[in-house]
Amino acid sequence: MGEWEDAERDLLDALGKNAQDPDTLANLIAVGLHLGKPTARYAAQLRTLAPRHPAAQRYEAGEELFARAAAAAVS
């Protein structure tokens, strides 16, 4: 509904109550991207806790694509 700041606040509160919830971490990544905030910390936590979570797999795939594009640009 476009209320990203409110969502971020609620998700950070949820994370404070359960830092091991992969869905909270995945949603923090999504909100952070919409707000233009760094998400690497949450992505690292998510990949550690739930590497098979769809959001963790998408993040990993994105990093791989970026690495390939960067390597191609350098060569």
From TrEMBL:
GO cellular component: COPI vesicle coat; Golgi membrane
Intracellular or extracellular location(s): Cytoplasmic vesicle, COPI-coated vesicle membrane; Golgi apparatus membrane
Keyword vocabulary terms for this entry: Cytoplasm, Cytoplasmic vesicle, ER-Golgi transport, Golgi apparatus, Membrane, Protein transport, Transport
InterPro entries: Coatomer_esu, TPR-like_helical_dom_sf
Membrane topology: Peripheral membrane protein
Molecular function GO labels: structural molecule activity
UniProt family annotation: Belongs to the COPE family.
PANTHER family given in the database record: COATOMER SUBUNIT EPSILON
Protein name stated in the entry: Uncharacterized protein
